[in-house]
Specification:
The protein is an all-beta fold. It has 2 domains: 11-125, Jelly Rolls; 138-262, Jelly Rolls (Sandwich). It is 2% helix and 46% strand. The protein contains 1 helix and 15 strands; from the N terminus they run ββββββββββββαβββ. It has one helix spanning 205-208, and strands at residues 11-21, 31-37, 42-49, 61-65, 86-94, 99-105, 115-125, 138-151, 159-164, 169-178, 186-191, 203-204, 228-230, 235-242, 249-262. The chain has a 4-stranded antiparallel sheet with strand order 1-7-3-5, with no helix packed on it. A 4-stranded antiparallel sheet has the order 8-15-10-13, with no helix packed on it.
Amino acid sequence: MSYDYLVPAGMGDQFFQYVFDAVPLTNGTDYSALSLFIDNFDFICRHWSGWDTVIDPTTGSIQVYDDIHRQWFSLEAKLGSFATGAAVVPEKRYRVNSSIKFDITDATSDNAASQLVFTGVRRIPGVNSDPAPSLYKYKRVSFSYPYTLVVQQTPTAIQDIAIPVTDYDFELERVEMTPYAAVSPFSITLFDSNKIARSNLPVNANRFFHFNPTASNGELNFWPCPPIMYAVNSSIRFAINSILAIGPATYQLQFVGNRRIPCQ
């Protein structure tokens, strides 16, 4: 038996990521009741990652709590260096004005790429769920928008980039990046076609981009999920924050998804 996933009537689920900046943490220190505030709308958490950059992979552990302070795990979890992150099953609902709280033992924060990322959807009243509908009937055809990104050595100004969406509406399903870097060289803020950021803070490259599994540590990120629809004549907008220690460096990005081709 299968159960269809239903969004409550009058609500829309839109892709969003909550990022906890772990750079200020002190190596080897234990922390209790660290938190991420959930603002504006309810948040449904479906995936989390980044603990390999925040806790010691051998001796560190983490416990996460839901919005009424129930533990995710029976005991604090020793998760090691699992770079792909993990699905949150069943998903966790955090009501607006609540917080994602967590305890950490033996923190590690060796570089500017230390962060926890909680991925899911914001549940917003009176909007369409992602991907938004088009104004015409269509069929999906695989398509990607390439972009060559040059990142300067930090510190440097934030790069604001827009890729025009031409000819047809476009559903963005993932963003691929080459070459792979074991430490994120930059972080990214993705915007929708209404110029609304889909994260509370910039997301480190290794927590956002999809990499070749044979040439990485297994960061097979498929974000945004659900896909985001960019209407024709809008733009795929994103901002790049460099955390590159030695630069400049060049990266090839592929914004992968589907064009919505009108039915004849």
